[in-house]
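Format notes (please read before filing issues)

Several people have asked whether sequences and structure tokens are stored in separate files. They are not. Every record keeps both together, in the order shown below: the sequence lines, then the token lines. Line labels are part of the format and must not be stripped during preprocessing.
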Amino acid sequence: MQSLPITTQRLTLRLLHESDAGFINRLYNTPGFLYFVGDKNIRSDIDAAVYLRSTLIPMYKERFMGLLAVELKDSGEPIGVCGLIDRDTLDDIDLGFGYLPEFEGKGYAREAAELMIEVARNTLGMTSLIAITLEDNHRCLSLLDKLDFVEQSGSRPEPDVMLLKRRL
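Then the structure lines:
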């Protein structure tokens, strides 16, 4: 894997662009995203475009880093985001993801996450990844368990936040 976009059998993962503002506005304002990820103060497509320019697109300075748009391969419809995030507050690279509710439970999140794990291991030479989530995000925890992430004992950044790790 040398460049983006990258694909699975059903999905295409590509860089986000300002033209994705409507999609980001919709995704970041779903109840699950607001509760589990947090309110990013995106109230309009203009706010989403600013967030893309100031926060998401700058993550692409390093190859294969940052949240990528996850699209259905057949239609090109964006359904979520998934990617590798270098957070200043964490020692390892974070696997992050979020999906529109109507696309949850169909295996898309696992498919995209497995592709990003493969990129981390085989293309970037990483030896581990981490994931952070709230302890009541059962859907996320179930996926992370299937992806062989394990909670790091004694490593809770906040009381209700779990830090999980996977060796690659």
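For reference, the curators noted about this record: Helices lie at 21-28, 31-36, 45-56, 108-123, 138-146. The two ends are 17 Å apart (CA to CA).
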